[in-house]
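for the record, two folds in this file. i put them one after another cuz i was lazy. first one right below, seq on top, structure tokens after. the second one comes after a little note so u can tell where it starts
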Amino acid sequence: MTVNGLPVQRACHAAGLSRATYYRPRVDWARRDAPVIAALTTLVAAKSRWGFWKCCARLRLDGHPWNHKRLWRVYCQLRLNLPRRTKKRVPVRLRHPLTVIPQPNAVWAVDFMSDTLYGGRRFRTLNVLDEGVREGLAIEVDTSLSAERVIRVLEQVIAWRGHPQAIRLDNGPEFVADRFTSWCAAHGIELRYIQPGKPDQNAFIERFNRTYRAEVLDAYVFEALTQVSEISAEWLQSYNDERPHEALADLPPALYRAQLEARSSPLKLSP
């Protein structure tokens, strides 16, 4: 007997199979394991948090004769051994209207962005924006930005800018961490979380992010994080000092803030 012109012995040797495997009749595993499949799927549907060994023990208690090796084979074929993704529970947030107070340090907005270096390494940016004057306050670049790093960046900005009254932000893990919320509470900063899945409620920073991506992240090919930081710093200075903003009567944010401060400062009377 031959297989494609070769003797069965030579064909099995080339394929790494034994001749007993070649002559063994094919088995319809789905039909043979139908009772096991039905029992496992019924049990997992009712007890979705149970693991394999708990299901195995329950089926044994129910009087099924299958050993653990057969149960494990069917369990894996059904892909029940893979972790089941559950929906992340996010606390209910109240919607805060986007009311703009035309003065600096009234409300800051913070958000994360991500991109990739030329070599495939991913990095993140932390963007901080003053909503009242549309002025970019910081763009921090690194591969990892934890809650401690967010606090450090905000402290650096506060050192030369002053404390904000409130911060508008999403429900990211860095922003809901106890360390970050405790730091904001200690400094008297109100946290205005947007509702989950509603980025339009943080529209000012989202618009800033779109401009930053179009003019920096998508415009250059970066090979190192230092390049991203240097180009971002130059762009941020140009954004604040040179780029006209339509919402600010075509004035750059820095000039608009300077005019607000000049109008709000008390007049000095000459002696």
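(here's the note) second protein begins now
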Amino acid sequence: MKNTLIIIFLIASNFLTFGQEKKASNYKFIIVPEQFSFLKEKDQYKTSSLTKFLLKKNGFTVILDSEEYPAELKSNPCNGLNAVVVDKSSMFKTQFVIELKDCFNKVIYTSEEGVSREKVYKKSYQEAIRNAHESMIDLQYEALTNEAVVTTKIDEVAEAPLETKNTATPIVATPFVLKDSKAPLKNAAAIKNLYAQPNENGFQLINLKPEVVFLILNTNIKNVFILKNKNGILYKKEANWVAEFYENGQLIEKIYQIKF
């Protein structure tokens, strides 16, 4: 009974941890594009520089997407939000909204509309951005200090005997063995870095852009995952991870470094 309670506690703790969605104020970094989509030049009318300057007042570490990223952001791009200035202007006024999006392009925060009726582009653009930012006074960086971090080792939990009244013959799983694990991989591409973000049944693996490269599903075998929507698997081989799947009738093998 004791082992059963331990397992239930670990599973419940993981669901609580994964279920905690960050608020905009919990992200340490904000990335501002050097050129907004409605402009023709980089930092035209100093719009990017001004947005960076203003968001720093909210306590965030703000960088342009053309600048060198801090190591903490490099190691996990989802530690940052992307700032976007949305142009809602009409013929008679400049009207902007500042949106903050997470690494999956989900809008986490939206400012109120900033309006300017100035005729000169530089003045009107900067005034509209400043007015939009004034409504963001409620947004201040708050580091997450009380997050519970629980690591469940699936192989250790699996070894814990469970008390049960079921007298049916137990099913013994056949161990998964990779044959010739030190043999060179065929069709292997250069090693790339991916970052794992937990979801309901496994993880989504993203790159530095960031974009989702794979959706992987958990299995009962240690260090083996199913590649969702692909005819293949992902497994650990020495220090790397190998994705094997069929594409146009050909077996493809790709090697990755994955940070879980």
